[in-house]
Structures are given as C-alpha cells and as structure tokens.
Design brief:
Glutaredoxin, mainly alpha, binds glutathione, Glutathione S-transferase Yfyf (Class Pi), Chain A, domain 2, four-stranded mixed sheet
Length: 222
C-alpha cells in the first residue's frame, strides 16, 4: 500500500496520526501541507481545508480521528482502541476532549503567541503577550489539566491498561506546549506530568520531537 499523510508536522492532529502510524508500524509519506496556503486541489481530499488528510490506494480521508479509526479497521493489530465497549467509548471521549476542548485553547492561547506569531508574523513576545498566555494557562488549561489528572489516576495509561488513541491525543498537544516552553506544574499535576514524560520517551513520539525541535522548539519560559 502506498500511503500519504498531508499536513504540517507541528499540528497536534497530524502528530496524533503520525504517532498512531508509528505505533502500528505502518509506512507512509508525509506531504507537508500548510492549511493556510494549501494547493488549489487540496479541498478535493480535505473538504474543510484542514490538516491532516490521508490518501492510500483505496481512499482519501480527512480528519485525524476518522483517519485513525479507518486505519484501525484496516490494521487491527496492535490494537490502539480498547475492545471493551465502555473503554472504547471512554477512549473516544478523551480524544474528543483534547481535540475539541483542549487544543482550541492551547493552540491559540499558548502555541500561537509564543511560537507561531514570532516565527511566522514577526510578532514579539511582549510582557502583555506573556500575561495573556499566563491567564490562558491559569483559567483555561489548568482546569483541564486537573480533569485529566483525575481521569488518569494512578494508571499508566488513560484507558484499559494499555496504550490507546486517548494517550496519543493527550500527549500530542503537549508537544506543542513543550515547544513553547510551557511545562506542566508537576507539583500540581504529578501523575499527568509523569505520564507525559513516559509518552514523550516512547520511540514513536521521541522521533517526532527530534524532527520538529530544530524548527519549532523555542523553550522560552512563559
Ligand atoms: N477535527 C480535525 C481538526 C483539524 C484542524 O483543526 N487542523 C488545523 C491545524 S492544527 C487546521 O487545519 N486549521 C486550518 C483551518 O482551520 O482552516 C482533525 O482532527 O483533523
């Protein structure tokens, strides 16, 4: 099978699919599409113009969650979704919590002002920008970290005692925060901080962090 994943490596949704593919051992080529300057025919693959999108010998698909669910049907082993129906639904919920809840806050509120705007739009990280980022962290992200800390509990993984799509989703957006120099407060969220350290060390994620860091790594403290 020839397979192409379209999208920028710094997107948390693209990274989620890439770690999924790596954990599955599936080969693909990354075609680096910038959604804000996509080729004219890109919407024939991704009707909303978003990244990621996927093409293989049989289909074209858009949306990270749809792509991973499709690939799971095509390549069931090793399973990255729980077999148990309730655990399966919980994994999907946690993925959705990240994709529709956490990313829309962490992206525009932290990653954009600290990394993308300085790099792409020459906008400096002023004291005012930093103050807005701190407010986003305190008011928006911290309650969500508290929720995730509680959902993880003392477990190694979020669902069903094994790596799943939920873990990949949670870890992926935190790479963006790591690039931005924003670390989780391990005194407030010790289990989540330890979970992220474990996830970042997995070969699937460590390889992407190494690939991305020369371009996107900023590590300026917020
Ligand atoms: N639900 C989609 C979200 C994808 C998404 O929002 N991607 C962003 C980049 S991180 C994008 O393409 N933004 C461009 C736009 O909204 O026009 C997925 O899971 O793939």
């Amino acid at each position: 099978m020839t397979a192409t994943l379209y999208g920028a490596n710094v997107s948390p949704f693209v990274r989620k699919v890439r770690t999924y593919l790596a954990e599955k051992g599936l080969a693909y080529t990354l075609d680096p599409v910038n959604p804000f300057a996509a080729p004219p025919d890109y919407r024939s693959i991704s009707p909303l113009g978003k990244i990621p999108a996927w093409r293989d010998d049989d289909v074209t698909l858009a949306d990270s969650s749809v792509i991973c669910l499709y690939l799971e049907r095509m390549h069931p082993q090793p399973a990255l979704y729980p077999a148990d129906p309730q655990a399966w639904a919980r994994a999907l919920w946690l993925e959705e919590y990240i994709d529709s809840g956490f990313v829309p806050k962490a992206g525009p509120g932290v990653f954009f002002p600290l990394v993308l705007a300085p790099m792409m739009q020459d906008q400096p990280v002023t004291a005012e920008v930093r103050a807005r980022v701190e407010t986003c962290i305190a008011d928006e992200l911290s309650p969500m970290w508290r929720y995730l800390e509680g959902e993880l509990g003392d477990a190694e993984f979020f669902v069903g005692g094994a790596l799943s799509i939920a873990d990949l989703a949670v870890a992926s957006i935190h790479v963006n925060l790591w690039h931005a120099g924003v670390d989780l407060d391990a005194t407030q969220f010790p289990r989540l901080a330890a979970f992220l350290a474990r996830e970042f060390a997995r070969p699937s994620m460590a390889a992407l962090i190494a690939e991305e860091t020369p371009t996107w790594g900023r590590r300026t403290s917020a």
